[in-house]
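User
Class, as today's exercise, I want you to study this protein, comparing sequence with structure tokens, and judge whether sequence predicts the tokens.
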Amino acid sequence: MNEKQQTISKSVSVTGVGLHTGVVATMTFVPAPANHGYKFQRVDLPDMPIVDADVDNVVDLSRGTTIEQNGARIHTVEHTLAALVGLQIDNVLIQLDGPEPPIMDGSSVKFVDALLDAGIEEQNAYRNYFEVPEYVHYKNKEKDTELVALPLSDYRLTVMVDYNSSVISSQHASLNDITLFKDDIAACRTFVFLHELEALYKQNLIKGGDLTNAIVIVDREVQDGELDHLSQLLNKPRVSVDKTKGILNNVDLHYSNEMARHKLLDLIGDLALIGRPIKAQILAARPGHAANVALAKKIKKLIKSGKGDIPQYDPQKAPVFDINQIGQLLAHRYPFQMIDKIIALDENSVVGVKNVTINEQFFLGHFPGNPVMPGVLQLEAMAQTGGILVLTSVPDPDNYWPYLIGIDACRFRRNVFPGDTVIFKCEFTSPMKRGIVKMSGRGYVAGQLVCEADMIASLVKKK
């Protein structure tokens, strides 16, 4: 999986009819800056409102996932989002001149093709992965649906579907490498059972549906008169049934388990609404949009709790800033330069590493015989980490001094001893105004919180 965030190199558009609304719309993918995420924009509405692709904005799950914000609604977002996740594109503005992305052929492949034509561009910011820290479970007994997210330092998904149908047997699909999405999953089309068609039309859905953008599974005996009626519904010449395949109008399947693969595609798109790329093993039995979104909400709740959102340190990876580069930014020198590496840095957060050794001067007099790192120096190391974040937020850091001017809610949770490696993470909690900025900071040893504080810093111009 990618370490750096990505966007597209140029804007690219696709046009087509929406599956459920039946409205023809043009969807344009527009490059976006780091940490922008996925946002839809209804350019056909007054003031062109923005809708964040966020699970908290889900308002309808009728045969697709619909989001709404700022008075604007976007129907059936899952295929679009799956294409972006599958290509590991992090930041895109998705402009729409209608209420629903084009259904195209019922899969994500046309979106993938368009995005690849636009080109993918790496950005100078690290991906803000959330590694699921514990077993997360969703179950709906009535629908016999069950989804699980398990800890894993990768992103893998397995789906099982079973419709108790004589036409479709139980199917499984897996994706163990996200880079295989475009080849193995993207072209898998949406599907519907014949017995559902009429009901969906009566519910004012699938207005844009026809045999070019969905697989119709014939799960019962069909009379000749019914075929004529179906032809009128689908606005097609007389349709037929290949009884050996159980598919309406002799559509050839791309894969024998295309239905399970499409459900996996939907799952990827719905989980994109968590708002961050995740690392987890996802297991799903008979998933649907409601279950997918329910699991996404559970994971987002876990993110909000702060549990599991602990920075990971791999000493084999090259740092963003080494000790010499840190010295070029910060004015501190031995014995008061407290940070050894910066291992992650973007517009809103920074992660620094402090290796604590018995050679530190303060151990000579601080609890001799029981060496414990002073809390005030833990705070100083955290503040220096935050200082890197503050300085790199301006184009001319050499012209400023970063000063710590406020501390609040400071707590020391555990002792820090020689031999410990402290991982500090600082995040902006408010935009910088007149050189003043607020941050939250936390320090971890072996995944355990050892200290935390809210800090206020000031950038003062050098005279």
